[in-house]
Amino acid sequence: MPLADPLPITPFTRPVTGAVDLPGSKSLTNRALLLAALGDGPVTLTGALFSEDTELMAEALRRLGFQVDEDEAAREIRVTGLGGQVRATEAQLFVGLAGTAARFLTALCASAQRGVFRIDGVAQMRLRPMKGLIDALRALGADIRCLGQEGFFPIEIHARGLHGGPVAIDARESSQMLSALLMVAPLADAPVLATPVGGVRRPFVRMTTLQMAQFGVPEAGAPRADGAIEVAPGRYHSPVLYAVEADATAASYFAALPFVAGGSLRLGGLLPSAQSLQGDVRFLEVLGRCGARVATGGGGIEVSWTRGSPRTGTDQDFSGFSDTFLTLAAVAPLLGGPTRLSGIAHTRRQETDRVAGMAGELRRLGQDVVETEDAIEVHPRPLREGVVVDTHGDHRFAMSFGILGCHDLRGDGSPWLSIANPACCAKTFPGFFDLLELVRAKSLGA
């Protein structure tokens, strides 16, 4: 059933209880889809995410000639790899607003031996940075033509393979650009030595190289002292099954829920940082410093907070796990002191300007916010009632403020905050508000 728009959020009147079954990681699912396509046979991805972003990636792979079969009920996707080949010689690919699909498919098409491929997205996607990846692929021999503004979509690729060699890549705007380059590097004619220029967010690059190893390319190891990563020519080997981890970014919302409403919630299938490929699990450490209790065991991670206990502000650099900064920023009005979130300048060029957008929505909610290019600082003030949060078409705004709305501000369980365009969550977490309501009902003993 369609969600109301705007959607009033019903607060929790009793502490949270139970467990949630989280969707698979978007970042891992889309990487696994690409790596499976590059593999040498069929592989079934289990626990995969089904969302707009992953469906755009799957459909693009089909247009490129790969067999991709989906079973949403079982959360499985079966991909038949072609040993590093791209069967189609012509295709028009649409990536919507999916940054991972945009960067990964650009690299895949550039690595093909032949073919003409045109890639485009929605208007907002045409504003998202691509120049670092385009320049690096061109340096490796790719013929990529920007059909509009240089360095942005739409693009047309006249594929002729990649020759390899040393290459500098500016991935400051998005680590996805370096990840995309690394994943197709084994298809090049010679070793690729990729050196990031100006820094890069390492956790997502580490995720990529570890996944590459899981698909048979262990040569993509730790970076050198200068940050360069070398990948030798090779072949991906498809595992029969590949289990996708639960999404650590999606987990951040439900991890914050007990911190807002009190109680305890088990995040099923989420791995601790020592075992996880995802840097975003570090968000749990931040919650712990703010006053939540985080415990591992029993097939997941449990987060709890007792109503009336302190909730303290913090000063946190989110550069390594920036998708979660909105979660903490949204609940910062409930903390007992200022909270500063830094390392987030690059998020100004994601689905929307997330720094300015978050600062603006918090001010509308009555908060004192100091905004700089790379940070926001939230000084808690009494929350203002009756606000309809503008999500700016960004799924992470909808989910973050959806959690804040679970706070029983009036003390009677009546909604005081609404979310505009809640359906934007379909980008990465289509069932978010349904799951949130299910957890609320369970907390009431329903």
Provide an overview of this structure.
With 446 residues, the chain is an alpha/beta fold. The chain has two domains: 7-23 and 246-443, Alpha-beta prism (UDP-n-acetylglucosamine1-carboxyvinyl-transferase, Chain), CATH 3.65.10.10; 26-230, UDP-n-acetylglucosamine1-carboxyvinyl-transferase, Chain. It is built from twelve helices and 22 strands. The chain has a four-stranded mixed beta sheet. Strand 19 (368-371) and strand 20 form a beta hairpin. Helix 2 (52-63) packs parallel to helix 3 and helix 7 packs parallel to helix 11. The longest helix is centred in the middle third of the chain and has 14 residues, at 248-261.
Report the total helices. Answer: 12
- The appropriate CATH architecture of the largest domain is Alpha-beta prism
Beta strand %: 15-25%
Overall 3D form: globular
Q: Tell me, what is the CATH class of the largest domain?
A: Alpha Beta
Q: Tell me about the largest β-sheet.
A: 4 strands, mixed
Average pLDDT number: 96
User: In the CATH scheme, what's the topology name of the largest domain?
Assistant: UDP-n-acetylglucosamine1-carboxyvinyl-transferase, Chain
Strand arrangement within the widest β-sheet reads 2-14-16-15
- Overall structural class, as computed from helix and strand content, comes to alpha/beta
Helix content: 25-40%
Spatial separation of the terminal alpha carbons:
20 Å
Low-confidence stretches: none
CATH superfamily of the largest domain: Enolpyruvate transferase domain
